[in-house]
Amino acid sequence: MKLPTRQDVERLLPARVPFGLRVFFRGAFLLLGLATIALALAVLQDEKERSYRNYQDGFRKNQAQIAAKLRHPTGQLVLLNPTAYDRGVTPLRPLVLPFSALDFDDRNKAQQAVEMAGCLVQYPDAASMCVAVGNNPFAGGFIYAVGSFNSGPLVSHSSGTLDLSLAHRARITVDMRGQRYRWIAPFQAMQAMDEGRNASPFANTRGRLVGFADEGPITPASRPVRDFRGWLWQDSRCVDGAPGAQDCARRAFVSVRLPVELFREALFSKGPAGIVWPPADLDQIKVQVEMLSPGEVKPLFDSNAGGATAPFSWAELTPLLLPGEKLRIRKLGAAGASTDIVALSGAEATERASPLIASLIRRLQVDGYDAPITSADIISTPLGRYELTLTGDIRTVNKALTAVATRVSWFVGGMLLAIFVTWLAIELRIIRRITELTRRAATVSKGVRASDNLATVDLADLRGGDELGVLAGGLQDLLQRVNEDVRREQIRVAQEKDTWHAVGHEIMSPLQSLMVLHGSVDDPAHRYISRMQQAVRVLYGSASPSEAFESTALDVQTLDVNEFLSHVARNAAAAGIPGVAFEPLAQPVRVRADEYSLEDVVSHVLRNAERYRLPGSLIRITLSQQAQEGTAPEAVITISNLGPQIDAGLLDKIFEYGVSGQPDADTGAPGQRGQGLFVAKTYMAKMGGTITAHNLDGGVCLELRLQCAT
């Protein structure tokens, strides 16, 4: 049974389609997508580190800003009155000022003090009022009422007039501990004098508020309350800025000190715990301040009016806190005890975030990220020490970054989608057609190895107006041209084979007759006739000379190359190559070679040397043995002549079939077909040897190497 050859197996297998460029192309898009994702992750990592550092900086700044606010009189007012507005803004309740007392007799000082403390309650009609007590119990048990309102020109009360409704007046009511205190205080103007000069018509109006106990009608026996003190100032400028108007509304500022007997009694009757200040029921005292105009029942200003806005409170600290931050304020006691005053938390972020991105951000590592962030500070006031503890929440960094990353993820997803769509479009439009074109082109090699050597590939469906269509069309036309050339070559080879058959048949008959005439082995002609018969047998039945030489099977045996070269040198003149010199060695050199083929090799080299040597010069043949460590010894045959050198670009090409240095090599003249050195190289390779050419000074050398026989 005949085993299948390699050609048969390849003919049955499908054509192998190269895929290197497709892998490169798809890998490039894959790397582009991975690079986009890696870039997004690197940006997230960097942003998380930046956000963490920014959060730490912001945390420290927030703590410093909150402490600074609370150290300011406005902040101290909140610390001293932590529950001042738990029951609403009105009616007004006294606040504990961060000052020991108010200089209520001086308008500028009193106004500056209440504005700095931030205790003014604002009303819709641009009025304001602050009701407070000092933080020093030894300044007296007084309640201060300081504020401002808009009014027409003030009408002063004349001394001795019992009807107080004829002038502007203040009515103040205090409800505390089940008792009510009420005062009515008419305005008594004081003429503004500039140190003895006449009064200025543009001078501000200033006067006292003389307080009477509002217990009934004023009689000649009624006397002002001794410790009631009050002042009322009015600017000369109109509120609306109209110059020269007489009856326009002007800004009035009132400052009153109210005597509270219960406060004084508590101060002078010290209990077992000592003086308690401020009073424990301070937030339960209600104060109402009304400013009345002459003859009017409805007051110009009423502190119980609706729409009042509270001053600075804890709510103003909340915007300073970042999401997740917590502020805790405690009042430190003398014995180490502490009382919590307030606990505030920053507003939570409400942005939508992706759980997947949140999980990814949590896995990003940042040095020191898991360490808690807490800062404490101490605020000292005249009434005690307060501890501020600000606690940060690192998770808010993740939440904020997740919210931002969720919004940006749409852009990253869009980039990945664009990369995928671009790859898909190119894959369907270009790569698929390239793959099909490559697959069909790969079948060309399979087709040319078939028995008929024709490539039957149809590329008509891949034709088109673009580059691939033009390439497919060009390849289709080229394959058609190749098939036509193959058919012509098959016809030519068949004709040439027939010619070689005829020539071989006609030559073999005379050679058989000559062999009979020169049958003796000692006859010199017998050797050349045998070589002619071998050459005819090599070429007989072959399609071309090159195929004949390459397919020749040599009979390699042991040969004494020293004696062989001596014989060649002696008979060279008979073969038409005179002047061949060889100095044989003293001992035989045995190599593995085919005698007739080796003689053909040497003859072709000698003919080339004869053709190019200088007239009258010798062709020298030398023989030597060389052996390198680890390799078998070799016999080196050197054939050199004097003459023109071989062009450097032809040193390797002269052994190719059809390459000749003669100008008529293309004419097909006998002996000039460029096959002599090709035959020499082919036979040397079949005998396990090599042949190389070298340029010498003034000549050329061809070196033949054969393996020595063991």
Notes on the structure:
By secondary structure, this protein is of the alpha+beta class. Helix content is 37%, strand content 21%. The chain has 13 helices and 23 strands. Strands 1, 2, 3, 4, 5, 6, 7, 8, 9, 10, 11 and 12 form a twelve-stranded mixed sheet that branches. It has a five-stranded mixed sheet with strand order 18-20-21-23-22, covered by helices on one side. Strand 13 (326-332) and strand 14 (338-345) form a beta hairpin. The two termini are 39 Å apart.
Descriptive key words:
710 residues; alpha+beta; Immunoglobulin-like; Heat Shock Protein 90; twelve-stranded mixed beta sheet; five-stranded mixed beta sheet; 13 helices; 23 strands; rod-shaped
Tell how many strands the DSSP assignment holds. Answer: 23
Shape: rod-shaped
The percentage of residues in β strands lies in 15-25%
How many whole angstroms does the radius of gyration measure? Answer: 61 Å
Number of helices: 13
Termini gap = 39 Å
Low-confidence stretches: 9-15, 192-202, 664-671
Average the pLDDT over all residues and give the rounded result.
Answer: 78
Would you give the CATH topology of the domain at 89-192 and 203-310? Immunoglobulin-like
**Under the CATH scheme, which class of the domain at 89-192 and 203-310?**
Mainly Beta
CATH architecture of the domain at 89-192 and 203-310: Sandwich
Specify the biggest β-sheet: 12 strands, mixed
Percent range for helical residues?
25-40%
Q: Structural class of the helix and strand makeup?
A: alpha+beta
